[in-house]
User: Which sequence fits this backbone?
């Protein structure tokens, strides 16, 4: 009942029921639902799992610059953009491999 029941498949499963089963079996993270970021917390509460302060998949979105109190230089911004670009490339490569 915590899932949006949209059956969008963005989590990697055909429908919300399959995703729920995978979470219950420990095969998927409760934070894999792409429709609502709070679903992961609700699922964690239901299954009695300890939820992190930041959802597993949202840790990726925490930029390095948010962790730095000092002013940013253009070099540090270029470094962060380069790192994020590599992450995106890695994700795209994994997506392409799914289709093979």
Assistant:
């Amino acid at each position: 009942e915590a899932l949006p029941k949209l059956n969008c498949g963005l989590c990697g499963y055909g429908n919300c029921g399959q995703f729920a089963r995978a979470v219950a079996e420990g095969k998927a993270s409760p934070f894999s639902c792409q429709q609502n970021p709070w679903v992961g917390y609700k699922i964690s509460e239901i299954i009695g799992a300890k939820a992190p302060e930041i959802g597993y998949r949202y840790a990726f979105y925490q930029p390095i610059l948010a962790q730095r109190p000092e002013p940013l230089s253009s070099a540090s911004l270029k470094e962060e953009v380069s790192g994020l670009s590599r992450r995106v490339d890695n994700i795209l490569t994994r997506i392409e491999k799914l289709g093979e």
In short: The domain at 1-62 is CATH 1.10.15 (3-methyladenine DNA Glycosylase II; Chain A, domain 3). DSSP finds three helices and no strands in the chain. Helices lie at 16-24, 39-47, 74-98. The radius of gyration is 17 Å.
